[in-house]
Amino acid sequence: MSAVASAPKGLEGVVAAETEMSFIDGQKGILEYVGIPIGELSSNSTFEETVFLLWNKRLPKQNELDEFTQNLRKRYELPKGMEQRVTSLPKTAEPMHVLRTLVSSLAMYDSDPNANDVDAAQDKALNILGHAPTIVAYFDRHRRGLDLVHPDTSLSFAENFLYMLNGEKPTETMARAFDICMILHADHGLNNSTFTTRVIISTLSDVYSAITGAIGSLRGPLHGGANEGVMKMLNEIPTVDDAEAYIMGKIQRKDKIMGFGHRVYKTKDPRATDLQSLAKKLAEDTGNQELYAKSHIIEQVMERELGAKGIYPNVDFYSATTYHCIGLKLDLFTPMFALSRIGGWAGHMLEQLADNRLYRPKAQYVGAHDQPYVAMSDR
Amino acid sequence: MSAVASAPKGLEGVVAAETEMSFIDGQKGILEYVGIPIGELSSNSTFEETVFLLWNKRLPKQNELDEFTQNLRKRYELPKGMEQRVTSLPKTAEPMHVLRTLVSSLAMYDSDPNANDVDAAQDKALNILGHAPTIVAYFDRHRRGLDLVHPDTSLSFAENFLYMLNGEKPTETMARAFDICMILHADHGLNNSTFTTRVIISTLSDVYSAITGAIGSLRGPLHGGANEGVMKMLNEIPTVDDAEAYIMGKIQRKDKIMGFGHRVYKTKDPRATDLQSLAKKLAEDTGNQELYAKSHIIEQVMERELGAKGIYPNVDFYSATTYHCIGLKLDLFTPMFALSRIGGWAGHMLEQLADNRLYRPKAQYVGAHDQPYVAMSDR
Known about the structure:
The structure is a homodimer of 379-residue chains.
Chain A: E1 15-19, E2 22-25, E3 30-33, E4 36-37, H1 38-44, H2 47-56, H3 62-73, H4 82-87, H5 95-105, H6 118-143, H7 157-166, H8 172-184, H9 192-201, H10 207-218, H11 226-236, H12 243-252, H13 270-285, H14 289-306, H15 315-326, H16 333-354, E5 362-365
Helix pairs in contact in A: 1-8, 2-16, 5-6, 5-10, 6-7, 6-16, 7-8, 8-13, 8-15, 8-16, 9-10, 9-16, 10-16, 11-15, 12-14, 13-14, 13-15
């Protein structure tokens, strides 16, 4: 039909951007942020430091980290007028629709929302990163009919979010577990929502538009929505003893099994390895051993049956158990993914703005040509 | 570095989707919707019929058009509770931020916002198409401190919008001119916002997420925002006699000249041809002959100086004069583009859902590997 070769569907395998943020070797199961193995970061770093790393391509000195953290904490509270926009929302709304809408609305409380130079873009990204947890926590308390818990700027990102959500300060283990989840989900190559961010900002639109679009992408069940699917599956299995039969049934019926397989990884997702130890420990601490045991059996059966095909647990699989143990409701799993990934989206946006070219691919027209406009009376 | 070949920057020339909606021949200056030349549609069709055509790949019979139109008119009024969300917005907000935010919020007033089968997706698209003009008109009256004018379901899409905006029914010429603008902007291959729609919906996310993302893309100055730039340029030229010197100055300084050149067209954009006649007539009817005369001189100078390089007027160039003559304020130009393009976005979304594959390209990592996590004390 055309002289132009079509790209593979879904642009699979097509390199559509350069990055200095995350490196993924899907065969070997390696993930690095700015060259540092993900396991090193989840063991030693914090979410705040990781975001600094992604945005600046190096680890901060103490004074830089302090400044970055203070700058972020200043954004914990919502702009005047925004709180009422949260508490006037229908309580039945899905948190991802809430987050997308209210992140979008932040532009209207910014006196210069469209500024796109490096400093301004980073400032607006920090704005979104600081406000987003508050939006989610306020909405969750609003729908539960509880008083809002205002942010505490003496707390870290992870501590403060759990505090606003639950009304009490989290234990150290909980806060650290949540912080690690945030580190692990922060960036992952040109996944769909990150690609969305780059596509939108490439029109030289604004930070709010780009991140709003990314949240919309992430909520899809083929992307961030998958961690909810894992939890639903675990809830369908009555006891640990039923886990093997349940999963064998799914394999035999060739059902999609949530939390397994990934376009990129052909071995175990390195984030799943980290999350597995975390989930195990948290499950013991919180009396959720059953849940962890079910997950572990599923992983073993899957490896035995489908490991040879390169179908292994992905990041969603053990994050479901982890989030459940932290006490998060099912429909907050994907928003948690979003809170963390704002770090990655913003970093890619900064890279795109630094060397921008409008994304404008071609569509192949496959219909008829030169058709007449047939008058209504002749149709 | 890698065995994978990188795509051209901005995915230029890469075929990333198939469509049966619009066909563009940028060399010959042809644009067809479902095979029908755009000039035939702007002369004979209406926006409602054009949207039916794009979504169904055929012209409707009378009863089908009646049903479609009635179905759309039912959505003119906003859901209960939404009106207050418009009138509580900061009056200084930019209408594109308002439109993006409130289209996003429509999901929260839909009892089943995530349904994605063909019927549901089409229904939600109609919801957005019906509500979007009301959002824009309500906000514009709110910021002007005027009472809202509620929609009149006896009026066409074009008539009703101008009625809600101005508080009086438009003349036939005005309504027809606006309707033609809506037809001309409805679809245009895989432009950035349409691509955004497809990328987002490919995660099997929802219609509200996809269209919200597209609005964010369209507001960028390299995309839908360009028509505002044309008007600003025209306003910078004091009189018709200054037009040639002004534009020659820009050419000599190699400034970007808004409204000229297009990634796809290497000749005059066929939509610009249609808009030019429209702009000329409207300018005469509304006493804006100066404005049209300036535009016409700019086009002539540009053709003489840069026509050989394939730099010709694009759709933004004469739409600026047209919208100005209709009485639209500058910051409503891009929202008008959005109202129309919802038709195209939704059509592409329906095509994507019918044969979906997750968009998930690759990023080329260009940084260092295997870096240590250096302890804070050693940095």
